[in-house]
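Shape matters. As here.
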Amino acid sequence: MDTIFALATAHGKAGVSVIRISGALAWDAGSRLCGSLPSSHKAALRNLRDAENELVDQALVLSFEDRRSFTGEPVVEFHLHGSTAIVSRVMQLLGSVDGLRLADPGEFTRRALENGKLDLAQVEGLSDLIEAETEAQRKQAVRVLAGQLGRIAEVWRSDLIRAASLLEATIDFADEDVPVDVTPEVLELLVRTQAVISKEAESVKTAERIRTGFEVAIIGAPNIGKSTLLNAIAGRDAAITSEYAGTTRDVIEVKLDLNGLAVTLLDTAGLRETDDFVEKIGIERAISRAHSADMRVFLKETRDAKTPFAALLGDLEVVGKADLVVGTDGLSVSGVTGQGVDSLVAEISRTLLDRASNAGIATRERHREALLLSTRYLSAARDGLDLGPDHYDVVAEDLRSAIRALNSLIGRVDVENLLDEIFSSFCLGK
């Protein structure tokens, strides 16, 4: 493969800028600029010089052997003073070295995947970690990057491989010293594995919301104080407010960090009957976004007032303009005075944190689809198992399909696993 290089830190002036080189020629290229490289996994100060021996910069240089680097290839890193002129000159010098080229976007991580340093889920976790803006997102991404999804998937795969190997042994080695009736053990493995995979698939939606952010829609009649409340929570004038009904015509979004969770608060148009064409569009959008939101806050004039549509479990019903209402029970808020705003925010946070606590390791729709596909094959395998040994070959194929579906989570499985399990478990190699 080509030897690649790129700036590994953000563009622009900084205290330190890092340029990374990866590939078979990395050490040779690094030596051209700094003379002798420090030993692997060591750092040392070196003077970087061009072909005319002119000093370019004094840098901290690190070198990594192939199997001990991020990419799984020989790697050299230059930790430079963060001048744009220095970075530009070093990049120019590396670009003039035969056999080196500028890396494509994500190519270092792709090489880490291809060289077995990361699995597919870990690559996604790394991407999420770079994009993380809240503590919950950071924690979630770190778990995936650390390989937790790969480890639990490996447990599931091992159980299914065991079940498949029992069936394969019965089919292919019927005359050998193997269990005759493998159904009870196979069924136990399938039931247990299908249950935990199904549970993980159900939790993906919540985990995905931690990654992308929850949406909370403020819903109510015109001039009930939705925009004022949004501004009070945001701490700035995000939405236009006035005493005239129908001021808000479109959905206004404010992104917040609530106790480590990424939350987008939605201010929507007041819901009412209207002949105003533009306002009517805003109302339709408000209803659509409210239905798709993770949570709704219904602002009402009184505690007994009806909501414009049915509230769902976890939605909040709140009396608005509390500064103008006397003696209300329950939660009431005023965006003007701030009354009840902290309590409302705390209740939103508590509700969303409760949901987030049920999130699993799988975080993407791709993961959910793979998990659901695996459970469908396991359901078919259980149905086939009920039909008896004559259908074991079909059941075994369903199990292989379930394993392949799990393989798509992390990007590896080998048919040799089946053979290894058969021979090690039943001592068939006599």
In short: The chain has 14 helices and eleven strands. Residues 269 and 284 are 9 Å apart (CA to CA). The chain has three domains: 3-112, 148-203+363-426, 214-356.
